[in-house]
Amino acid sequence: MTTGTDWQLTRTFTSSSGDVCWDRLGQPGRPPVVLLHGTPFSSFVWRAVARSLARDHRVFVWDMPGYGTSEKAEGQDVSLAAQGRVFTELLSHWGLAEPLVVAHDFGGAVALRAHLLHGVGYRALALVDPVALAPWGSPFFRLVREHADVFERLPPTLHAALVREYVTSASAPGLHPAVLDRLVEPWLDDPGQAAFYRQIAQAEQRYTDEIQGRYAGIDIPTLVCWGEDDTWIPVAKGRELAALVPGARFESIAGAGHLVQEDGPAELTAALIAFFRLPR
Questions:
Q1: Would you place residue 104 in the very low, low, confident or very high pLDDT band (cuts 50, 70, 90)?
Q2: Helix segments in 54-170, DSSP class H
């Protein structure tokens, strides 16, 4: 696991769903890579991978609206549909025509929607334990989605305990206490508590149902990477997804759970670098 907790986004973009915090690493002129996080996480989970990739790439990282250090507001649209639009806006803002894209969990659906529905081009796409195939959502996730208004009223101490237990379950070997603290911190103040349940309430499967039938038409190099010990989305879903995308490569990471970036950052980085170096 990786334990470094120094991570800060220094730039802001005003999107159609609120202000987005973002940053970039690496030298200008190098091949661009964009990293998308999942839920309930932020760009923080990519810190080790991003710094490694920045040796040979220009790496772009961002916190989606409603996540991490980006804007959290009452009534905010943080659905997969909104995030796909925001990602499209960001790529235009950055001036990136066909970047390499690496997307985890919920971010996988965001990247797929941007490509399949908004016509965004990628040089290659790596999907890491993505939300992509129905049915999805753990029993806990579905329970919270159905009763988000009730959970939002939990006392702060109970809410904090729930979030910590939920995030902890994404890792197979367990998270360093300092890392766990950073992962849950954005959700613990009043705006964060409301935002945590807002994003779950808006996480509807129909947004992946809209695109699942289009996976066979993906014609860019694609890697599907999965933690073998993922208890949130079983590794069998990864093999199923790879079989649906023409020519997709599948690679599993031993000993890693859903949070592959935390459980196996070196192994994941090696898989990504090897994929990026394949002839196009």
A1: very high
A2: 80-94, 106-118, 139-146, 148-151, 156-168
Q: What is the pLDDT of residues 155-186, one digit of tens each?
A: 999 999 999 999 999 999 999 999 999 999 99
- With a CB cutoff of 8 Å and minimum separation 6, the contacts of 164 are 180, 184
Q: Within 10 Å of residue 227's Cβ, how many Cβ atoms? A: 30
* pLDDT average, residue stretch 205-225: 97
Running DSSP on this structure, what letter comes out for residue 46?
Answer: G
Report the SS3 class of residue 43.
helix
Phi/psi of residue 125, each to 5°? -130, 125
pTM above 0.90, yes or no: yes
C-alpha span between 83 and 88 (Å, rounded): 9
What whole-number distance in Å separates Cα of residue 164 and Cα of residue 193?
12
End-to-end Cα separation, the chain, in angstroms: 32
- Give the separation between CA 3 and CA 48, rounded to whole angstroms: 9
